[in-house]
Specification:
Order of helices and strands: HHHHHHHHHHH
Number of helices: 11
Largest sheet: none
Radius of gyration: 40 Å
Length: 323
C-alpha cells in the first residue's frame, strides 16, 4: 500500500469541516479504487475524529505557529524540570496558563468559522490536549500533525499515551525521529522477519510507530526528580491560583457594590414610575371628564345657535307682516 498517498489523503480529510468528514472519506475511498484494494480499505478505516480532536486539528491546519509556540514552551519546561529549576518552572507555568487560555479561545473561533460551536466540556478537552502537547515530545508531534482522532491527556509524570490517538501513526515523527517512509520501514520489517524465521516463530507485523520507538531514548529524569519538578509546578500553580483568587475577590467586591447601587437606583426608578403611572391615570380620568363636558357644551352651543336662528326668522316675519 502507498503509505504516502494514505497520509496525503488523511491530511486532506482531517482538515475538512467536522460534518463533511464521512462523505469525503467515502468519496476518497471510491476515487482510490483503481490503485488496488489496500488503499481504499485503509481510507475507509480512518476514524472520524472527536469534536475536541477535530478542533485541535483546525489549529494545526490554520494556526500552526500557535502550536509551535506551545511546543517550544513545553521544551523549555522539560529542560527546567530536568535541571530542577523551580523559579524558571514557575515562570514558564504562568506563561503556559496564559498561552493555553489564548489557544483555547483561538480554537473556539476556528471551529465556529467552520460551523461548529464548542461547549465548555469540549473546550476543556482541547485545553487538556494542548497541555499534553507541552508535556511530551510525542504528543507535540501528534498534535501538530493535524491527524488527531481523540483528545490527549498528560499526568505530569509518565509519557502521554498516544495509542489510537493518531489516524496514520506512520505519518507522525515520534520523539524527534523523522517520519517513517516505506524505504525506511522495509529494513526494519525484513530484520524482524529474518529473526522470527530463525527462531521458528510466526512473523509479526510491527506497526510503523512501534518500529520508530525501538530507537534508543535518552535517559529520563528519575521518579524523584519528576516528583520534585511536579511539586515545583504545583507550587507555582498554587501561587498563581492565589493571585487569581485575590483578583476575583476584588472584582466580586466591586461587583457587589455596583449591584447595591443599581438596586437602590432601580427602587428609586420604580417609585418614580409608580408615581408617573398614578399621575397618568388621574390625567386620563380628567381627560375623560373634560371630553364629556366639552361634548355637552358643544351640544348646548349648537342648540342655542338653532334657537337664535329661529328667533331671528320670527322677528323677520313679524316685521314683514306689520309693513
Amino acid at each position: 500500500m502507498d503509505d504516502k498517498a494514505l497520509a496525503a489523503i488523511a491530511h486532506g480529510l482531517y482538515a475538512l469541516p467536522f460534518d463533511d468528514f464521512v462523505a469525503a472519506r467515502t468519496a476518497a475511498a471510491k476515487e482510490s479504487a483503481g490503485s488496488g484494494k489496500e488503499l481504499p480499505a485503509a481510507i475507509k478505516s480512518l476514524p472520524k475524529p472527536s469534536v475536541a480532536a477535530w478542533t485541535v486539528n483546525m489549529l494545526a491546519v490554520h494556526q500552526p505557529e500557535l502550536l509551535a509556540e506551545l511546543a517550544g514552551l513545553g521544551e523549555k519546561m522539560r529542560t527546567a524540570q530536568s535541571s530542577l529549576d523551580a523559579v524558571t518552572l514557575r515562570e514558564l507555568g504562568r506563561e503556559r496558563r496564559t498561552l493555553l487560555a489564548s489557544a483555547v479561545d483561538t480554537a473556539r473561533s476556528e471551529a465556529e468559522r467552520r460551523g461548529r460551536s464548542i461547549s465548555s466540556t469540549i473546550a476543556s478537552d482541547v485545553e487538556r490536549t494542548l497541555r499534553a502537547l507541552t508535556a511530551d515530545e510525542g504528543a507535540a508531534a501528534a498534535v501538530q500533525s493535524g491527524l488527531l482522532v481523540q483528545a490527549l491527556s498528560a499526568d505530569g509524570v509518565d509519557t502521554v499515551d498516544l495509542g489510537g490517538a493518531v489516524a496514520v501513526p506512520g505519518a507522525v515523527p515520534v520523539r524527534g525521529a523523522a517520519p517513517v517512509t516505506p524505504s525506511a520501514a522495509a529494513p526494519v520489517r525484513e530484520k524482524q522477519r529474518t529473526t522470527t524465521e530463525s527462531a521458528a516463530r510466526p512473523a509479526s507485523d510491527q506497526p510503523r510507530l512501534k518500529a520508530v520507538r525501538q530507537t534508543p531514548r535518552p535517559a529520563s529524569p528519575s521518579a524523584l526528580e519528576k516528583a520534585k519538578a511536579a511539586l515545583a509546578e504545583a507550587k507555582a500553580a498554587e501561587e498563581e491560583s492565589g493571585r487569581r483568587a485575590e483578583e476575583r475577590r476584588s472584582v466580586l467586591e466591586d461587583t457587589e457594590a455596583r449591584v447595591a447601587d443599581l438596586t437602590r437606583e432601580t427602587r428609586q426608578l420604580r417609585a418614580r414610575l409608580q408615581g408617573a403611572e398614578e399621575e397618568l391615570e388621574r390625567s386620563r380620568k380628567q381627560l375623560g371628564t373634560l371630553a364629556a363636558e366639552a361634548k355637552q357644551a358643544a351640544r348646548a352651543a349648537e342648540k342655542s345657535q338653532r334657537s337664535a336662528m329661529l328667533a331671528q326668522e320670527r322677528v323677520l316675519r313679524l316685521g314683514n307682516t306689520r309693513d
